[in-house]
Design brief:
CATH superfamily of chain B: P-loop containing nucleotide triphosphate hydrolases
Shape of chain B: globular
Largest interface: A-B, 27 and 33 residues
CATH class of chain B: Alpha Beta
Structural class of chain A: alpha/beta
Strand content of chain A: 35-45%
Distance between the termini of chain B: 30 Å
Number of strands of chain A: 20
Structural class of chain B: alpha/beta
Number of helices of chain B: 8
Number of strands of chain B: 12
Shape of chain A: globular
CATH topology of chain B: Rossmann fold
Oligomer: heterodimer
Strand order of the largest sheet of chain B: 6-9-10-3-11-12
Helix content of chain B: 25-40%
Helix content of chain A: 10-25%
Radius of gyration of chain A: 21 Å
Number of domains of chain A: 2
Strand content of chain B: 25-35%
Order of helices and strands of chain B: EEEHEEHEEHHEHEHEEEHH
Number of domains of chain B: 1
Chain lengths: ~450, ~260
């Protein structure tokens, strides 16, 4: 017997996705959408038997029906749900509400070296730009949510970065779905010119009351010598499910520093795929995964070294409080011919509750001899010697615990180059810990 | 003869403690007055460090009998952090490294915790910086220590200096320095001794736990206790340390109560 486990349950969600797909316009993307939808339906929802979904059970979600989050016209919402707390001086902010970017007239972002267009506008004028894109995600079964995104995305952003952009570009993914069960499928495409450099921050908020399934995909193409610092920060509420994939394709000598920060949401699944296809390219990824309450976080990284002298570094720090469950699953593949590749993985988990669970799975597949690969994974509780040392100096126990939790995250936090972003993330993190006031005085 | 008439800071009576069911402290008696420096000497494994940890409130040890009165308060009823705020300080034998927790901030938080407990206002940033810089200069510590994690990457000697620095900032009523001299070269030993001597007198009482007589060349104790078999076997003035150096610990082991 090899009966799919969730067959009965999946149908409600699948039927609702199919209905959404049928409602999409018959435009230049229809063929692409149709093909993606058929493949998604054939694969069905992932079950724990799927290799990269073994820790995350979607049975409850599968029984639900989702409708598209409505488009809300510019200016129609006065009391905008969930302003981003990252927004700061020197940042250019673009809001995407229910999947639709809220852009002013025209493509002028007001930013030097960046052309911003809505994906819908691109679909109308140059559908080929989107239809002919292929991503590693959509080619693999693991990327089935990316397939669904391809079939259903309503809108999104297309950024073309041609030079060195001064301040961070903040993209706020907001949703206004006060009731019911809504799905948002949006997409971000970032194209860079040679030597371009920018910081892009995606901040994912909750729905403001209702149940939200946010299925978003980001694709970043790095031209030779281009350099991108990309953040995705999740701070949704306990009714928000996030499927978020980031695909980075590296040209020669390009650099990407990618941060995945999960501070909210009920279920957050993040995929990162970095394809180091250009000689000398480097990808550094950082993950800060804060599990608390009943939150489930499933962070899956796949790094492919496909060219000589490529470098990847992964740093993951996971905290498990409450009855949360946090998975960090990282796979590094070094293809034949990627001589001189260097890869390093450091993943550490801190268990704060007997009911929480942390799983880390570092994997290496090496098909080349001349490589340097290292990985380390540890999971433990707060160090009793460190705790006692702080207590013996008069620090309150709860504050001492918070301090040690904070210190545990140091390797990721200090990696954040954008200071206002780091401050904002630290502030949000502190809010989640006891003795916030004392922690603040510590910084 | 000890003519000190300072206030009694610590009174330990018949203190017994176990770890994992094993008796380690077997009836410790000790009295210290303000302004005094006591040395507790003894062989390895005699229970000296356990005494220090029990006084600091480490949960791994279970006190099975006896009492400890600190500044008139039942110390055993206090949590470790309360003992610290009440003016107790333990200088660790092996100070732990805490990467990610900044040295200067820890000191400031510790000082403010103590001041808050005494209903004093928090120390302001300028005042604190001036204080810590002066003390660091005295301890011959580089200012880069301020921005580093607690003991992170410190050498053994640096860690011990850092313990003394903390002591000087916190100005405890009672400091127990657990083998602060071990692993120090002679220059570091002198600096550490100068730190201890600078706190000496007035309201402060100090217990030096040490294996060797060497430290006592630089810090002259008012009383010397020989610790063996889980209790104090012999007490005397500084000449006891020299006698011990000559005759070895076997001399006191012979007196041990079974």
């Amino acid at each position: 017997m090899n009966e799919p486990a969730n067959k009965a349950a999946t149908s409600a969600a699948l039927r609702s996705f199919e209905a959404s797909w049928r409602a999409r316009p018959a435009d230049g993307l229809a063929a692409m959408r149709g093909e993606a939808m058929q493949r998604f339906l054939a694969l069905g929802l992932p079950t724990p038997r799927d290799e990269s979904w073994r820790y995350t059970n979607l049975r409850a979600m599968a029984a639900m029906s989702f409708i598209d989050a409505p488009r809300i016209a510019n200016g129609a919402v006065t009391a905008a749900p969930g302003e981003s707390w990252i927004a700061g001086a020197g940042m250019s902010a673009i809001r995407i509400l229910n999947g639709y970017p809220q852009l002013g007239a025209g493509a002028d972002s007001g930013l030097a070296h960046v052309a911003v267009r809505s994906l819908r506008a691109v679909a109308e004028s140059e559908p080929k730009v989107i239809a002919e894109r292929h991503t590693a995600a959509a080619e693999s079964e693991e990327g089935r949510w990316t397939l669904l995104n391809r079939a259903l995305f309503v809108d999104g952003l297309h950024l073309r970065i041609t030079g060195r952009v001064a301040g961070p570009i903040l993209i706020v993914h907001a949703a206004n779905c006060p009731d019911g069960s809504h799905a948002v499928h949006s997409r971000l495409i970032v194209e860079t010119g040679p030597g371009a450099a920018a910081t892009i921050i995606e901040h994912h908020l909750g729905a403001g009351g209702g149940t939200l399934l946010a299925n978003r995909a980001t694709e970043i193409d790095l031209a030779p010598g281009a350099s991108i610092e990309h953040y995705r920060v999740f701070s949704g509420d306990e009714r928000t499910t996030q499927f978020d994939s980031v695909d980075v394709r590296h040209g020669a000598d390009s650099r990407c520093r990618q941060f995945t920060v999960v501070l909210g949401g009920a279920l957050v699944r993040t995929d990162l795929r970095a394809h180091l296809g250009g000689i000398g390219a480097q990808h550094d990824s950082y993950a800060l995964l804060a599990g608390r309450g009943a939150r489930q976080i499933d962070c899956v990284n796949t790094i492919v070294h496909a060219a000589p002298r490529t470098t990847s570094n992964q740093t993951a720090r996971a905290i498990g409080a409450g009855s949360s469950r946090v998975v960090f699953n990282s796979k590094v593949i070094v293809e034949r011919g990627a001589a001189g590749a260097q890869s390093q993985q450091s993943s550490r988990g801190l268990l704060l509750s007997p009911n929480a669970e942390l799983d880390t799975r570092p994997q290496l597949q090496i098909h080349e001899d001349d490589v340097k690969c290292a990985h380390g994974a540890t999971t433990g509780r707060l160090d009793p010697d460190m705790l006692f040392y702080l207590l013996s100096r008069g620090i309150e126990r709860s504050a001492a615990q918070s301090l040690l939790i904070y210190a545990f995250l140091d390797d990721v936090l200090t990696g954040i180059a954008s200071m206002p972003t780091r401050r904002a993330i630290e502030d949000a993190l502190v809010e989640e810990l006891p003795d916030a006031d004392l922690l603040r005085s510590f910084r | 003869m000890n003519l000190n008439t300072g206030k009694q800071v610590l009174t330990i009576s018949n203190l017994c403690a176990t770890v994992a069911g094993k008796d380690i402290l077997k009836g410790v008696d000790l009295e210290i007055r303000a302004g005094e420096v006591h040395a507790i000497m003894g062989p390895n494994g005699s229970g000296k460090s356990t005494l220090a940890q029990v006084l600091a409130g480490r949960e791994d040890y279970e006190v099975t009998a006896g009492s400890v009165s600190f500044d008139g308060v039942d110390m055993l009823a206090l949590r470790p952090e309360e003992r610290a705020r009440a003016g107790f300080f333990l200088g660790f034998q092996y100070p732990v490294e805490i990467p990610g927790v900044n040295n200067a901030y820890l000191l400031k938080a510790a000082l403010n915790a103590k001041r808050k407990a005494a209903n004093l206002p928090e120390v302001d940033a300028y005042e604190f910086l001036a204080l810590i810089k002066a003390k660091m200069k005295f301890m011959q510590m580089d200012e880069s220590f301020l921005s580093r994690g607690v003991n992170e990457g410190f050498s053994g000697g640096e860690k011990k200096r850092n313990e003394i620095l903390q002591m000087l900032i916190l100005e405890p009523k009672l400091a127990v320095l657990d083998e602060t001299d071990s692993g120090l070269d002679i220059d570091a030993l002198k600096v550490v001794a100068a730190g201890v001597n600078s706190l000496r007198g007035g309201e402060h009482a100090i217990i030096l736990i040490t294996h060797y007589q060497r430290l006592l060349d630089y810090i002259e104790p008012d009383r010397v206790h020989v610790f063996a078999g889980g209790r104090i076997q012999k007490s005397g003035d500084k000449s006891l340390a020299l006698e011990l150096e000559d005759r070895g610990y076997d001399w006191v082991r012979g007196d041990r109560v079974a």
